[in-house]
Amino acid sequence: MSLTQAWQQALDSLTAAHDHQSVHNAASGPLPSSNAYTLLTQYFEPAAPSECRFFDEKTEVFKLDTEASDALHALLGSGASMPSSSKIDLSSPNPALFALSHHYVDRCLEKLQEMAYEYGLTIRDASRASCSALSDDLPGALLKLSLWFRAWLSPYADTSIFSGTSDDRNRLSQSLQAYIRSLFDHTAAESLRSHLEQLVVDPEHLDLPTTFVAHLNIAGLATPAMILLTRVMHCEITRKVRAVVDAADVRPQDSVLPLESAARPVLQQWLDDEVKPRFAAIRQCLRADDAFPEAKQKVVDTESADEDAWKSRLDYQLDKALCLTRAGQLFDLVALYPESSAALEDLRLSLQNADQRLRVAKTFSESLHMRLLHPGAHTRDIIQMYVHLVRSLREMDPTGVVLSRVVSPLRRYLRARKDTVLVIVASMLGDDPDFTLLKDELERADQEEQQQEEQVETKRKRRPRRSLQTHAAASAGTNGGKRSHKRRGAHPRRAASSSYASDSDASSEEDWDDPSWVPKPVEAGSGYRMSTSKDIISMLTSIFDDRSGFIAALEKSMADQLVQVKGYKAMKEYRNNMILKKRFGEKNMGKCDVMLGDVTESRRVDSEVHQRRRQAAVPAPSTSAVEGMISKLHPLIVSRQFWPEPTIKPGTGAAAGPNAATAVAGGAGAPAGTPGSVAEFTLPPLFRHAQEEYGKTFCQTKAMRKLHWLNHLGTVELDVELDSGENISVECSLIQASTLEVISRCKGRTANAADAASAGGANVVTLTDVMEELNLQREKDARDALEFWVQAGLLKPVAGLADAFIVQPSLPVASVDEEHGGHEEAL
């Protein structure tokens, strides 16, 4: 029934009642129905809750006094039943009630702004028409609003007079709430957010029905409150993650975890045990209004209509905050790997739920550029970080998206560094205990390949036998297919090592027969396929377009190690060479094979030379010292065409023209040294005669070949006896041993510095003496050799005389321990 029809029926009813009564009681006064309608309109006059005649402020329910009840009976007619509950027992509301309800709603809307002023919800200002006062005392204002709305909407309760006029009830309720929302400005929103934050953060359990939250729904503020509550919860989750993981904005109830510890289980338990129950309680209080269901607002849940959706959103916010916080720590986590595996596991699980791979990659790239990719960082540190990065990011993000976006700038930067190749080779073949990452990777890859080959061999042996005819027929029918399959399914590392294929080629090759192949992720960048190679060494070597320089560096590193072996024991170098041949191909490692062959050949030739000399005639007494030196001489004979010149050339190690046939001079079975650090020099007569005699015997063994001695590479093991009877054992280079020969010629070792000056320096050795005796061209070489014996305790600088040293008759007792420590450090 429309409003016009309701008014028309009401007027018809009043007119009929007037015609009926005019015949019998013309002078009885005003019409009863007209008087009743007027009385009820006055009774239902909207006012403050304490002044509303139809509202009981104590019980907060609708009421009708006796006069109003009689007027209602008169208006509706004597046939209408009127229970004490004031509910009209009719199948549908009387048209007069429609008119009365409409009149009541109109009066409420007319007095709406007046009541707002009376409640202090708006104030007048000269500069603005009105402004909200909700933010001044939000809980108090909400309490007033709730009581006000309950009073004005009480006639529409289920047991009240207007219970059947739902349209008027909705119009009044929506008008009241719309007016309050118009007063809800930015300041009021901030005030509500602050109160919600205090409610969320407060660890004490509050009785929510007694708080301001219970009045938000009836006031029409449930929807903005739900939005603000969600934001507050997200901010609190982010703060908690930063406090626990990064020690930022810590509160007394927070417990900070170490960087490498797993934080996600702790945070998830906190979210499930504290945040979700609190959020659910507040959310339920916002959505429900059992005391006054007719004023209930349909809350727009910003999370989802599903009851479990908001829980998933909170989980998502936790994982997102954890991703972004861990992203800022990722540089340190990668550097600490594998100790940081637990923290990286946090990031792996969070990335699965919160798709933040691009932001993590961006943050990590910025950290790399700021902390690593700059001229102040050593190439060794960059390579070390590279290996850690590849290992850790593969564990953290199996999709390879983060790795593909981070590794490309790092590869470009390494390509621009001049010493990258040398550092990579040194890390694979060197002996630095603090930098064995690539060596371990080389050995691990070799072990994996051997295991794969053993598995293939085991499967082949377990293959069931078939008859000869069947086998021949099968071979004839599928031989070509098998060959094609082998070419296409070849091992990626072998294919890359034999042809130096790029990582992208290897990845494409793997795709042919990979049963677990999946398409590229949506976030994959242009370098994604390049970074999916499982071989870290191949990833490093593939950054260089010219592999010849890398192979040359491998040869140089192998040569530097071989000239330092003792007793011709090069098993470690043999093993490294076998692994490198599998990696880079036998053809490319040909020179390394020759160098290793020289070690084996040198041992055989040296054994033959000493055997020939033992079979020769007994030497004369004058040559016994030379023979004793020869018996301790075990050189490494190298092929000059195959050994890198920077290794065998004396001086600074710079490349030069080819040398003659060479032999690394050494004593006591120790053909080793520091390559390229000392220029050429002349040996003392004892050492020189021993080399000449050894060379003569070598020529008898190897006709048409002659030795050229590389004295800058040899080392000697010496037992030095002092005048005091003390003995020291040292291992030194050949130039240091030659310097000791010069020192040993000094006389008067027991003299002090004053006697040395008066004796013309008989017990003093100078820098000039060493340079002249050994024909040295550089003062640095002589000074370094003298400094070695100063550290050993055999020499002492002369006070007031530069480059002059007194020969000590005994070792200083107070500094024996320090001298031995310094000697070991020098070695």
UniProtKB/TrEMBL annotation:
One record GO biological process: metaphase/anaphase transition of mitotic cell cycle
Gene3D superfamilies the record matches: Cullin, Chain C, Domain 2 (3.30.230.130)
Region of interest (Disordered), ranges: 445-525
Domain Cullin family profile, residue spans: 537-789
Stretches with biased composition (Low complexity): 495-505
Entry superkingdom: Eukaryota
Similarity comment: family membership: Belongs to the cullin family.
Organism: Pseudozyma hubeiensis (strain SY62) (Yeast)
GO MF annotation, one: ubiquitin protein ligase binding
Lineage: Eukaryota, Fungi, Dikarya, Basidiomycota, Ustilaginomycotina
Protein's recorded name: Cullin family profile domain-containing protein
GO CC, any one term: anaphase-promoting complex
Annotated TM spans: none
SUPFAM superfamilies membership: Cullin homology domain (SSF75632)
Biased composition (Basic residues): 459-468, 482-494
PROSITE patterns the record matches: CULLIN_2
PANTHER family, per database record: ANAPHASE-PROMOTING COMPLEX SUBUNIT 2
